[in-house]
TrEMBL record:
Domain FMN hydroxy acid dehydrogenase positions: 33-414
Alphabetized Gene3D superfamilies for the sequence: Aldolase class I (3.20.20.70)
PANTHER family tied to this protein: 2-HYDROXYACID OXIDASE 1, S -2-HYDROXY-ACID OXIDASE-RELATED
Residues the record marks as active site: H309
UniProt binding sites for FMN: 112-114, 141, 162, 190, 285, 307, 340-344, 363-364
Protein name: Alpha-hydroxy-acid oxidizing protein
Residue ranges of the TM segments: none
Alphabetically ordered keywords of this record: Flavoprotein, FMN, Oxidoreductase
One function term, GO molecular function aspect: oxidoreductase activity, acting on CH-OH group of donors
Length: 437
């Protein structure tokens, strides 16, 4: 099944030495941030930065062009305030929700991420297992370093396969058939990569796939010997889900791979054909407008993911939290809407639910957890986000995710009512003082 091996044969380390190196590198000593020093998702970004070669850190962290959309995705959550309702019975908070036909213990799913095994050898298996133990769904990418079959064997939880539509339709059908055989639950067609985003950090840091030393990246790799030894000890990685012939040993840059292989003419009738072939819940990820949401509803898909690929594709688009409510209002009675991109806090999850999203997806945060600490890092990321979500629900007086509504959210720049109606209303403080006499 291994179609590409991202490691020069001459550099492979095998046998006992491989085991020894892996064991001693589990939690390296040369870093400041340890797993128990991470108290929120942003802390994991710092921990990952300390352990990853800088080209890899910037590959995860970077966005397209000026990264305005990437930054807005998170900061725009501050444009909305949560409104608590007190004196409610919140002794038990029920966060369960069924989304795209899969049961979630709490309303989060893991976004698909490419090249996951490059960051830490625990790779996609560990992420899928951590998702399953936390009761959330895992999405496996077409660009994953673990096969559809191996992820299915490793983790019992709900699984989504993210299809990047390739130019070769036989290859697309082969991937879908493998997912059917492996009993994946949902097929997710990502539509925002028809053109490669301009990720300037990758150009500056000299990132190639597979990682190869060059004058731009040599210092970045040399400063992280623990990662280098571990990568060599693991024997490199492959992209086992891409059918033979649709890639090659040396992808060069991801942008070049996308340009050469991605289908650039995805039509709604193609979506309908794929959906019929799959025959189970089918979702489209990457939509950012009411018009596209309406087209999705007309085509009969199960759901959509409002996403700008974490700001890694189109720069200059809106933050997804600013888009989701209008899209829910347009199609929420016909399909399920999930929000992706920028979620870093439980309060963000709750704000998205208040807008009408059925759940949120996270990508970078779990990759940071994985890169820094392997599977325990992903588990802690999910544990912290779950606690924050539950705490926030309690703090706004909701005993269940189904109680969260637009009543719990207001625009942060809304002026106090007295500024809008000053002329008509008496001063309430004066009124109160008089009535006390
Ligand atoms: C792949 O999906 C990427 O965003 O790099």
């Amino acid at each position: 099944m291994d179609r590409f091996v991202f490691c020069p044969r001459s550099a492979q380390i095998t046998g006992a030495l491989q085991g020894e190196i892996s064991a001693t590198l589990d939690l390296p000593d040369d870093v400041m941030t340890r797993i128990n020093d991470c108290f929120n998702l942003l802390d994991f970004e710092k921990a990952a930065r300390e352990r990853l070669p800088s080209p890899l850190f910037h590959y995860i962290s970077g966005g397209a062009d000026d990264e305005t959309t990437k930054s807005a995705n998170t900061s725009s959550f501050d444009r909305y305030h949560l409104t608590p309702a007190f004196l409610r019975d919140i002794r038990k908070v029920d966060m369960r929700r069924t989304v795209f036909g899969v049961d979630l213990a709490w309303p989060v799913m893991l976004s698909p991420t490419g090249l996951t095994g490059v960051f830490h050898p625990d790779g996609e298996r560990a992420v899928a297992q951590a998702a399953a133990s936390s009761g959330v769904a895992y999405s496996l990418s077409t660009m994953a370093t673990t096969s559809i079959e191996d992820v299915a064997a490793a983790a019992r939880g709900p699984k989504i396969y993210q299809l990047y539509l390739l130019k070769d339709d036989a290859a697309n059908i082969e991937m879908i058939d493998r997912c059917k055989a492996a009993n994946f639950d949902v097929l997710c067609l990502t539509v925002d990569t028809v053109v490669a985003g301009n990720r300037e950090r990758d150009h500056r840091t000299g990132l190639t796939v597979p990682p190869r030393l060059n004058r731009r990246n040599i210092v970045g790799f040399a400063r992280r010997p623990a990662w280098c030894l571990r990568y060599l000890a693991g024997g490199g990685v492959s992209l086992p889900n891409i059918p033979a012939g649709d890639g090659n040993q040396n992808l060069g840059t991801l942008a070049a791979y996308f340009a050469a292989n991605m289908e650039q003419n995805i039509t709604w009738s193609r979506v309908e054909r794929l959906m019929r072939h799959w025959g189970k819940p089918f979702i489209v990820k990457g939509l950012q407008s009411v018009a596209d949401a309406r087209n999705a509803a007309a085509s009969g898909v199960t759901g959509i993911v409002v996403s700008n690929h974490g700001g890694r594709q189109l720069d200059g688009g809106a933050a997804t939290v600013d888009l989701v409510a209008n899209m829910v209002d347009a199609v929420g009675d016909r399909l399920e809407v999930v929000l992706d991109s920028g979620v870093r806090r439980g309060s963000h999850v709750v704000k998205a639910l208040a807008m009408g999203a059925r759940a949120c997806m996270i990508g970078r945060p779990y990759l940071y957890g994985l890169s820094a600490f392997g599977k325990p890092g992903v588990e802690r990321v999910l544990g912290l986000l779950r606690q924050e979500t539950e705490r926030t629900l309690g703090l706004i007086g909701c005993a269940s995710v189904d109680e969260v509504s637009r009543r719990h959210i207001t625009p942060a720049d809304r002026l106090p009512d007295f500024l809008q109606y000053a002329a008509a209303e008496p001063n309430p403080t004066t009124k109160f003082t008089r009535s006390m006499k």
